[in-house]
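Run log, item B.
One chain of 188 residues. Sequence copied directly from the ordering sheet:
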Amino acid sequence: MHGLIVLCSIIFGLTVVTSTDIDNKYLKCLVCRSTIKEVEGELAKIDPSMEIDVGNYRLDADGNIVTKKVLLAQSEVHISDVLDNICEKMSDYVRATYKSNSELTILNLMGPAGGMNPEVAKVDIIQDGDLNKSLKYYCEGIVEEFEDSIISLFVRKEEDIKYQMCTNIAKLCDPEYENDVDEEHDEL
């Protein structure tokens, strides 16, 4: 990963900065929002007509197993499986600041099409001692602590899951900078 950052810096002429004054609460907010965005992306890949049988597998009065069909993207089991692996995606993320306003962000180096993210040119990558492994660590902590809440929000198809999860439930994002995070981070 470190080699990729250096290579990106050389190829794109980026400024790599070091920072020791990172607001960890804001960083955790960004990680939370990126984690939810990654889950949404994974669930969006599923065929919307694909269903799965769910139920308690108990027998009814006639001796039949009672199950029901739900959409795979709304299945607790499938969402839990997605959450088990979602933090691996944080390995492709780096801390950065926008060149335009020096605001902290985290950026996925890989674009949606699989190549280098074109947004890399708009940021200065922050070089840190842990090679951004803390992003994965923060993600794992969020998923571990709030897995049931995340699953519940997706099963119920709630509106604005990122805001509900990261601001209202986990309290990682302050409502006063929530709009800034939405406008800047969602562009990436």
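Observations after the first pass:
- The CA atoms of residues 93 and 108 lie 4 Å apart.
- The longest strand covers residues 93-98.
Flagged for discussion on Thursday.
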